[in-house]
Amino acid sequence: MRQIRRAAVIGSGVMGAQIAAHLANVGIPSLLLDLVPQQLTPEEEKRGLTLSHPAVRNRLATEAIRRLQKLSPAPLFRAEDAKLITPGNLEDDLHRIAEVDWVIEVIVESLEPKRQLLERIEAYWRDGMIVSTNTSGISINAMVEGRSEAFRRHFLGTHFFNPPRYMKLLEVIPGRDTDPAIVEFMREFGTERLGKGVVLAKDTPNFIANRIGTYGLLVTFEEMQKGGFTIEEVDAITGPALGRPKSATFRTLDLVGIDTFVHVADNVRQNVANDEERRAFEVPAAIQKLVERGWLGEKSGQGFYKRVKANGKRQILVLDLDTFEYREQKNVSSSALEASKQAKGAAGKARALVQGGDRYAELAWNIVKRVLVYSAEKLGEIADTIQDIDAAMRWGFNWDLGPFELWDALGLVETAERMKAEGLVLPQWVEAWIAEGHQRFYESSEGRITMPVNGKPEPIHVPAGVIDLAALKKGGKVIAQNTGASLIDLGDGVACLEFHSQNNAIGPDILSMIEKSVAIAEKDFAGLVIANQGKNFCVGANLVLILMAAQEGDWDEIDLSIRQFHRAMLALRYSQVPVVAAPHRMTLGGGVEVCLASSRVLPAAETYFGLVEVGVGVIPGGGGCKETARRVAESVGPDDDLVPALGRMFQAIGTAKVSTSGAEALDMGWLRETDRVVYNDDLRISAAKAEVLRMAETGYRAPVKAKAIRVAGRDGKAALQMAARGMWNGGYITDYDLHVAYKLAHVLAGGDVPANSLVSEDYLLDLEREAFLSLCGEAKTIQRMQHMLATGKPLRN
Ligand code: NAD
Asked: What Gene3D superfamilies does the record tag this protein with (predicted)?
């Protein structure tokens, strides 16, 4: 079976280094090669090195790896994974590519150097080795002219977007001779292992996303100038109001680099045959002028915007295109923009804006209509399906809706009529599709979604294993439901408990659904998955309810809530069938406690996991402290000192540490060796389902209830408290932090009992509840909760 066990990345610049980092993220070691420097740096001279010294010869790659650890956002899941990347250079180490399964070329964007490099690579190429290029838009076929047929069969484009860890899009571009089995393999590998959203693109200038995206940006510029709009007006219209990121048009250009954009646009202009299109890709004089002045965006400190500090205040000025001077931004508002703000969902927002009836609505429409028609015209040329074009724009440009999805949202038929009335010519296939009576590009019936392919409706491609909870719910698969959560039948004997309260915060509704779900699963299912497809897995317990009760001094209410929380967590822990939690993105406080109560945890690659309760002046109260103590006791030998391991967890909870990835969550001490990261978020629920089935088939047994837990006791508590005092002495924590830390130490150590006492789970839960309740009675805890609810940030009072 084809596999990628090792890789070589050639070119250690912005993209090459980060691609190597992402390979390291998923456990693939790589060689990272670059040119040999021709000159010593002053530092190297000082150290007495010569140009033949390996440290000098490998300098480019070595420094690139070092930089990876400082880049923000972090390209590595865990800094230490950088050791999976081996630096080298193209003169001494190229032969080592013979050991790898995949070579990816990521050097300068220019045909000739890429061609020459591929010729050198072929000298070490062996049958079966995949070779790809990360070019943004140079012809794949042109690059391998002169290479052997066997080599060409193994060559293709794999175009990552920057930053590769975070941008979901991977364009896979087969060449004329690429073996279809290799294309299929890379599609699967890109999806399952690298966690990317893969689209198949054709070998045309700039492939899919950059072709449509660049066209869209140029059209936006043209319409802006035609209508006399300002830069901030255009950004207000082409951002979230239209279902696109906040960086909208011009802040995106500043981030990408205006010179890079010009380079990309030029590449299309020089390589398309059609004159009209060539004109469309001509870069306007104003943008050329920016490049000439070196105003390239963020990297040069100014572009369409400029950050300044005036009177001690930070400010972002905007470029006035008439005077070419920066000025203060003006407030942009209109009824159409307001309507879009009020509307729900990307489709609703875009509709409200485009149909809003004022001059901003008209600008939005004038931009959108041209992008929609252009995308339709390019179908067949740049991609075979509308789905590939839509996905490329969603994943590569962070649009909420791709062009055809947006067209459907605006109403396919009405929109087409309006376009024609305004003189646009629609591609024949769109006319024919509408003439056949279709109301949408994507049609759904009986749970199947189809789209036009060669004039006929054909099913959309869904990678194996993608589960869509919303579709299952629509399809009548809900077993039980309340305001906070639903239990959904995933098929094959597995049910999924989905949270869907506001921010997925845990309140009484979710807790009662947890108990109910376990009962139903034990009766009717092989096991239970806990996962959802919301923005975050769970931000913690519902603070509003706790705060209200605390302000009213209703201690019984809080006491009952904690007891209910504990009951639900124990139901999970002692469920007779396996429970697999599959968290993603923010998984905080109560969300972590749900994971700790589950039999297994499969976090997504992007999971930000932590017990952060001290930020609101309490300690974990849903079994988090008890589970921490239990796991620490289980992680060490029966005679080992508990304090070192307990101290690490105490510090993590005491400083509200949150992991920066799923992989880091595994390292924090709460999760077990059997827990593992799922790289592709779309496959997270099916991976959890498969895990449930595997556990059920291999004879899952619930944990033993009566098992006593060894605790650190009063000596351990004293040690933890002393550590906290050290932090306080050093000025790292406030008086109140210290107060909360003391309570935390008390609970984690098992209270005032002799060291190494054996205690029951219920005893630890009682300690947890008492400490939580007493902290709720403190004014500073109430202030912390109020502050968090008002600002979303912790208060360090
Ligand atoms: P970069 O300039 O940061 O890095 C290029 C690296 O290649 C440098 O380390 C350089 O030393 C090395 N190099 C240059 N000429 C070479 C040669 N002849 N032989 C071997 N090595 C050579 O560039 P980048 O931004 O990382 O882009 C690399 C490739 O990725 C390009 O094809 C680019 O179009 C593509 N790409 C870039 C982005 C992006 O946002 N930067 C996004 C997608 C794709």
From this structure: 1.10.1040.50, 2-enoyl-CoA Hydratase, Chain A, domain 1, NAD(P)-binding Rossmann-like Domain
